[in-house]
Design brief:
The longest helix has 22 residues, at 2-23. This protein has 4 helices and 7 strands; from the N terminus they run αβββαβαβββα. A 5-stranded mixed beta sheet has the order 5-4-3-6-7. It is α/β, with parallel strands linked by helices. The protein has helices spanning 2-23, 65-82, 98-108, 152-166; strands spanning 36-38, 44-46, 54-60, 87-94, 113-117, 133-137, 143-148. The protein has one domain: Glutaredoxin, CATH 3.40.30.
């Protein structure tokens, strides 16, 4: 039983941790890579203009099962709880068009900002593989947290980091 537990739970977690090191291009404490994106509701958002706010940046894809499990929690447990002048959630569809994102959100009804990254140009500044990915950017424009995959414990750490930065 113990060997089965280690194989089924610990080994994949260790592999995921290694994947983050191998595929992650950013480091905690560095300035967030610069980019500008147009959201599906027509807003143009530049990371440089968001200084002074805490930002949760999420990369996802509509075909990604873990992403689809995580996003309702982002809406309910993070965005609805903390939304306001000092906090933004920006969700970017890796490899998706604006039309994909509009159709997707008509079905899902999320209220945070959603933008396409058709050619993975924005995603490519942060990582080379693996989604979902979450980055918390502090008020000074520095990466304060980064996580890969959707694991309940990691999600709780992310929520805690957001709460701490908003105090």
């Amino acid at each position: 039983m113990k060997k089965t537990f280690l194989f089924l739970f610990l080994v994949p977690a260790l592999l995921f941790a290694q994947a983050e090191d191998k595929y992650t291009l950013t480091k905690i404490g560095q300035d967030v890579p610069s980019f500008t994106v147009k959201t599906i509701d027509g807003k143009t958002i530049s990371m440089s203009e968001l200084k002074g706010k805490v930002v949760l940046l999420n990369f996802f894809a509509t075909w990604c099962g873990p992403c689809m499990s995580e996003m309702p929690r982002v809406e309910k447990e993070i965005w609805q709880k903390y939304k306001g002048d000092k906090f933004i959630v920006l969700v970017i569809g890796r490899g998706h068009t604006a039309e994909d994102m509009i159709k997707f959100n008509k079905e899902k009804g999320f209220t945070f900002l959603i933008a396409p990254d058709t050619k993975n140009e924005i995603y490519g500044k942060f990582a080379t593989r693996v989604i979902p990915r979450n980055y918390i950017i502090d008020k000074n424009g520095k990466i304060a947290f980064q996580g890969v995959g959707y694991i309940a414990e990691e999600f709780e750490k992310m929520k805690g980091k957001i709460e701490k930065l908003l105090k």
